[in-house]
Amino acid sequence: MMILLFFAVITLVLLVKLNSILGTRVGFHIPEEMIPKMDKEASEEVAIAEIDRKILDIKKHYPSFEEDSFLKKAEIAFETIFNAYAKEDLATLESLLSPRLFHAFSLAINDRKSRGETLEGTLIRCIKKEIIDASTSDDRIFVEVKFSTEQSNVLKSSSGEILEGSEEFIKVHTDVWVFSRLKDEKTSRWYLYEIKYEAN
């Protein structure tokens, strides 16, 4: 019994010593620049594989989901919402936005109208659109689409003075729009649930 206890103590001391050496010289103290990083191509392949997996999960709840068709409809929704916001078309916005997002749009439009300002927005073209994420909750499906678009936006005062933007300046905007619909409901429709802005 004493012999077993002696070897147990020796083993414990060795383990503590080994852990001390590894933790100090090897563990979490490896300089970041020495850690090999995944190259860009491999990283993109991993991201694509992850999106494919998430889309397959979406199809379990919504079998008719098809990426190309969804992206075409998402682009149409982008253009429709963009124009409706500029034209202060609340009826169209209400039919395409989540209640929370519609409330935010309404406040912005009413604030603009209260100052007598007008927004002249022109969507020149959609440069690129891609699904960058997809997920589900207990009762909903979410699909995130990243849009890169060319836009011309001019905010004018009641007298026609340009307050922001330029009629001759076209800017590239990058936005991430989150579309959502209810799970397992054939009558459910997609609507814009959230907008995430990226640095432009």
Describe the protein.
It is a single chain. The chain is of the alpha+beta class. It has a domain at 64-197: Nuclear Transport Factor 2, Chain: A, CATH 3.10.450.240. It is built from five helices and five strands. The protein has helices spanning 2-25, 40-61, 67-87, 90-96, 99-114, and strands at 118-136, 140-156, 162-165, 171-182, 191-197. Strands 1, 2, 3, 4 and 5 form a five-stranded antiparallel β-sheet that branches. β4 and β5 form a beta hairpin. The protein is globular, with a radius of gyration of 27 Å.
What is the strand and helix layout of this fold?
Layout lengths: L1 H24 L14 H22 L5 H21 L2 H7 L2 H16 L3 E19 L3 E17 L5 E4 L5 E12 L8 E7 L3
Antiparallel strand pairs: 1-2, 2-3, 2-4, 4-5
Helix pairs in contact: 3-4, 4-5
The CATH top-level class label of the domain at 64-197: Alpha Beta
Biggest sheet layout: 5 strands, antiparallel
Strand content: 25-35%
Helix proportion range: 40-55%
User: From the alpha-carbon coordinates, what is the Rg to the nearest angstrom?
Assistant: 27 Å
Distance between the termini: 72 Å
CATH topology of the domain at 64-197: Nuclear Transport Factor 2, Chain: A
CATH architecture of the domain at 64-197: Roll
Helix vs. strand class: alpha+beta
**What low-confidence regions span 5 or more consecutive residues with pLDDT below 50?**
1-38
What is the overall silhouette? globular
Provide the residue-averaged pLDDT: 80
H and E string:
HHHHHEEEEE
Task: Give the helix tally.
Answer: 5
Count of beta strands: 5
